[in-house]
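I hope you will forgive my troubling you with a question about protein structure. I set the record out below, with my sincere thanks for your time.
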Amino acid sequence: MNFDITPEQDMVRDTFARFLDANSTPQRVRAAMEDGTGFDRELWQGLAELGAFGLRVPEEAGGLGLGLFVAALLMEEAGRPIASGPLAEGLVAARLLGQLGGQDALLEEAVAGSKVVTLALHDLASQPVQWVSGGLVADAVVARCGSDVVLISLPATARTAEENLATTPIAEIDLAALDRVVLGAGDAALATFAAGIEEWKLLTAAAINGLSRQALKMASEYACERKAFGVLIGTFQGVSHPLADRLCDVDGGKFLVWKAIYDISVGAPRAHAGPSLALWWAADRAGPTVTQSLHTFGGYGLTTEYDIFLYNLRAKAWPLVLGDPQLLLEEAGRRLYADEQASQPDAGAGPIGLDLGEEAHAVAEEIRALFAKNVTPEQRERFHHSFEGHVPEVYQMLADAKLLFPGLPAEITGRQVGSYARIAAAETLEEEGYTSPPAGVSGMVAMMIHRFGSDELKRDVLPQILSGQVTCSLGYSEPGSGSDVFAAQCKATPDGNGWRIDGTKMFTSGANIGTYVIMLCRTNPDVPKHKGLTMFIVPLKAEGVTIQPVYTFMDERTNITFYDGVKIPDSWRLGEVDGGVKTMAVALELEHGGGFAKVQQSMLEAAERLCADIRVGAERLIDQPRAQMRLARTTANTWVSTMFGYRSQWASVEKKPNFAFGPMAKMFSSEKFQDDARDLLDLTAPLSLSKRKGDAAFINQCYRHAHGTTIYGGTSEVHRSMIAERGLGLPRTRG
């Protein structure tokens, strides 16, 4: 797995970034708007001299023949300073001229920047008069006309300036009335042109993502300078939390482009839907992103003195030349569910890797074989997303195979499982339907004992956990503290050579089947709340422990646990006295960083099957465009969640700088799980109202389950604060 670009690609990116910073300044952008064209010819020429328009031209046609990923990096950098000109169209048109041949002189001029060649995005046979990006300044247009790919010359008389939303060089042109030459005819030529349109989608999406990211950066910097009521506005969650959501949208857009390019390069089954989803996402999320960014500036954002308005206008102008972006979602739906085919560009080499490797594949196959051989249908019926799904026989099976805790080091489990193989193990267990909170929590407790426990705990308790004999629970939350674990009031007072524990813990899930609970207790009430805490292991069968069930509407049981004079020896303490924050930080680090992409994927697959079964008159629901669009939207959300999870795990494994990647993966996936569960429940109603065995019951359960995912493990609000602070550099929003 890899999310790093190569040094060579970084050098190309940096070269264009520095040039664009110097030559696509707000002053230059405004000047291009003021002359009525929205085109900066000097900038265009400079990009040509750096080789921009030859990047994707095949080497045999005199170009550089670089991969699509490099072109996407260029376009993201061009979006950041909202470069004035039809750059994506120019890159693709030059490539098409090189691929189809016969126009060597024009290709040379296009690569050199002395002539502008652009694209017509719709077939002239059905739409002879259409809006053309860059049509106001272009010398020629590459277009499809029925079964031909043609080159149309644009005389000055055909180009008419017209006021438009963002003063970009678009023009409505009667292309059928102009001179043309045929560049290619038949299926091969049409496939080449169609692949060029797919490439244009990805390059335009990359540019919009760059624009959106810069708008967020401007808003965040302003929020770190502007004060209201005597404090920086970035400390207000009403400012920081929406910006955190928008950062997820922007990163998601980038990763949909990256995933689309990767999928094309490896021939992934659903690769042909990627470009449409990537551009739909970028266009759909850019609007809220630039609007929220402008809103951060308050009334100043409405003035033309601040540059943020330029981003607001171009965020809409760039993609709309194609038409309504929702048509892209409709197109993706047809490609995913109506067997609509699409030509794909040659993506070339790219650095991004999403394969987990040979060890990961081997571990996944081992788990599948274990389940196929040993797990009965009756046991599978008991699987559940909560502690209620604990099946001791399956738990023990995994422990015996030393695959119950693949994330723990080999020195305590006796089996070395590589970092990426651990990810594969977790994914495979989810695919089997076995999502085991007892294993996740017990593994965390085992690691804490290994790191901070006494010799006694390591000798007597740790082996019980590792062997699968017992399970554990978390005693963090309390009735009055919720996500603020450091506000714990459950007391631990010295008692002889040990401690006496008194208090209450809330949401102690699994305590009714567990043997031990890891608890955060207050050991010093006279210091700030985060300094007087200590961590302990407490036996749940000890005298003075009372466990009372609390049932949720998600078909799960949690517990409230009471501790009345519970006595434990000092050897059951984890870490230093009053050093619980340090110990807890490790526990939270182990807990954060996950996500819900796999259950999103399972929900999507269940909805697909259900939509194929449900009839609307004589038609299957899945054959209706409304269903295809909504399933496609869930697909996009699931892909982004998966990419966020992979990035978080990759950054952790490879020791990369981590800008709240874990909180982003958890927050985004849980929020989208909830959104999509709600929508898919609607889509498949009224059958989804039932708990009828199978996919209907699962969709029903997902709707209820999703609500909890935005709360446990830290609420979405807590994670938004972390994303705002670490991802956007905003000031701390929590006391």
Summary: The first helix runs from residue 7 to 23. The two ends are 38 Å apart (CA to CA). Residues 150 and 182 are 4 Å apart (CA to CA).
